[in-house]
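PROTEIN–LIGAND DATA SHEET

This sheet pairs a single protein chain with one bound small molecule, magnesium ion, given as SMILES. Inputs appear in the order they were entered. The predicted three-dimensional arrangement of chain and ligand is reported afterwards as a token string under its own label.
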Amino acid sequence: MSLIEINALSKQYTSEADCVAALSGIDLSVDEGSFLGVVGASGSGKSTFLTMLGGLSHPTSGSVVIDEIDLYQLPGERLADFRREYIGFVFQSFNLIEYLNAIENVLLPLTVKALPKAEKYALAEDALAQVGLGHRMHHLPSQLSGGEQERVAIARALVNKPPLILADEPTGSLDSATSREIMALFAGLNAQGQTIVMVTHNLENLDYFNRTIHLHDGKLTDDRVAGQHCLAS
Ligand SMILES: Nc1ncnc2c1ncn2[C@@H]1O[C@H](COP(=O)(O)OP(=O)(O)O)[C@@H](O)[C@H]1O
Ligand SMILES: [Mg+2]
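PREDICTION REPORTED AS:
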């Protein structure tokens, strides 16, 4: 079943000096339970694509429909609610708050939820256990390795149990052994049914995806399902 429907999605960044077509006419349907890789050279539009999937930036034209919700038809406040409920974001730079310990960072997305404190803690502990960090809950980011900080960021993305995880170059600042551990962690989450869309330019990561799309100058140029050959040109 399809979770994401993208139609004729385009984004231009305009300034007085020039106009950049960051994305042009993307059509794509992504099934629930996918682990979709998005690859392409630097500047090909990968991050723009992900921010549009996540409801972070309005397209110039076209639509993104997730679970039958047309994101950019929602009023701003509802779009913010949608992001909170539906999307877990993971970024290359981890974006952890340095003066909060691991569990406090993971609790952040639950701040606005009307849940008893003990229940929030239980959810955050579960999320940290899920990423293998149950023994580091009270460490500050500065006391954790890069791979462990990434795990905290993943736990924070998971804590709300969002239908969709979006990750932008999550292994971009990790060494290759740690990258493989993190990719194995994502693959494990996917095996449990979690839908994931991941931007990467590390070609070693391709093995983990069950489908990979390529962007070139803002256009979708290739679409491959693992084990099959080219589906679209
Ligand atoms: N906020 C912005 N304002 C103007 N141009 C931008 C902005 N963000 C990205 N771009 C341009 O859009 C194109 C695609 O960028 P991006 O989506 O970041 O690519 P990637 O993530 O593949 O490196 C690039 O040419 C980039 O310079
Ligand atoms: Mg990028």
